[in-house]
Design goal:
single chain; alpha/beta; Helicase, Ruva Protein, domain 3; Rossmann fold; 2 domains; seven-stranded mixed beta sheet; two-stranded antiparallel sheet; 9 strands; elongated
């Protein structure tokens, strides 16, 4: 990138270079990083293609692009990520919110709407950045959400997002190992979670961004990827009111099959529904506690 560079120059060269480095979305990554380095909107990149970069802007962009080529997530480089209509602060202390998790949020919101509760009590387990908790609270003004995480660093990020979005009156945080800190007789309406679900032998299946940069505490869950989910199913069952529900995200097909089996065993074969995304890939499950409050 020598000499005086224009927006058009850097877009073309950077897209090509990131593509050669193996980035899966070189155009999107380039646009986001260029807009970040220049302090403008993505749209402005194409409204002013002949705009020259200052030396400071060019240096800033070089640094961001080099870090991205090494696998560092764009969300960490920008310090934020949009998720389900809200913009979230994101740091290396938390997972990068992903589109797959929006399927889980949609299912949770659909269930809340169908129940028509006056003030539903919702718990987001393993909240990380607070993505699920904030998205539910933003879309369902009646909901009161408790966001839990075992990581203090993650809770600090979640607290920042809750405050920035003005949700502090309806979303609170607490440190807890899954639902251990919630009374067994809590009578919750809904438990929702994107728990750790990567099996230990699946580490090499992760892309560089996740494997080398995202927190292992939020990724890995024992030899089968079900260590956390198995515990959560039992803990949620005791804390849900009769008729309450657990909405949970899953991972690979093998891990998803294991989770389906353990949920059906805990909640009942007819009480568990798969949650497919728009491409019909199952991203998780909704499990309902029986109205009688007894297991299968």
């Amino acid at each position: 990138m020598g000499g005086v560079l224009t927006v058009r120059d850097v877009l073309g060269k950077t897209i090509k270079w990131l593509g050669e480095k193996g980035c899966e979305s070189p155009r999107l990554d380039t646009e986001l990083l260029a807009a970040e380095a220049l302090g403008i909107r993505r749209l402005d990149l194409y409204l002013s293609p002949e705009r020259p970069l200052t030396p400071v802007e060019a240096d800033r962009l070089r640094d961001l692009v080099r870090r991205r080529a090494k696998g560092e997530p764009v969300a960490y480089l920008r310090g934020r990520r949009e998720f389900h209509g809200v913009e979230l602060i994101v740091t290396p202390a938390v997972l990068v919110p992903r589109p797959e998790t929006e399927t889980i949020v949609d299912a949770a919101l659909e269930w809340l709407t169908s129940e028509a509760l006056d003030a539903p009590q919702v718990v987001d387990v393993g909240t990380g950045s607070g993505a699920i908790a904030c998205a539910i609270a933003a879309a369902c003004p009646a909901a009161h959400v408790l966001a839990l995480d075992i990581s203090e660093a993650a809770l600090e990020v979640a607290a920042r997002n809750i405050g920035a979005l003005g949700l502090g009156d309806r979303v609170r945080i607490d440190r807890s190992d899954l639902l251990a800190g919630v009374p067994a007789d809590a009578g919750l309406d809904l438990v929702v979670s994107n728990p750790p679900y990567v099996a230990e032998d699946e580490r090499n299946l992760l892309d560089t961004s996740a494997r080398d940069f995202e927190p292992a505490l939020a990724l890995f869950s024992g030899p089968l990827g079900t260590l956390h989910t198995s515990r959560l199913a039992d803990e949620a069952w005791t804390r849900l009111r009769p008729g309450g529900a657990l909405v949970i995200e899953t991972g690979t097909p093998a891990q998803t099959a294991r989770v389906e089996a353990l949920l059906r065993k805990r909640f009942g074969a007819l009480a568990v529904d798969p949650l497919p995304d728009i491409g019909r890939t199952v991203r998780g499950f909704l499990a309902r506690k029986s109205l009688e409050g007894v297991g299968p």
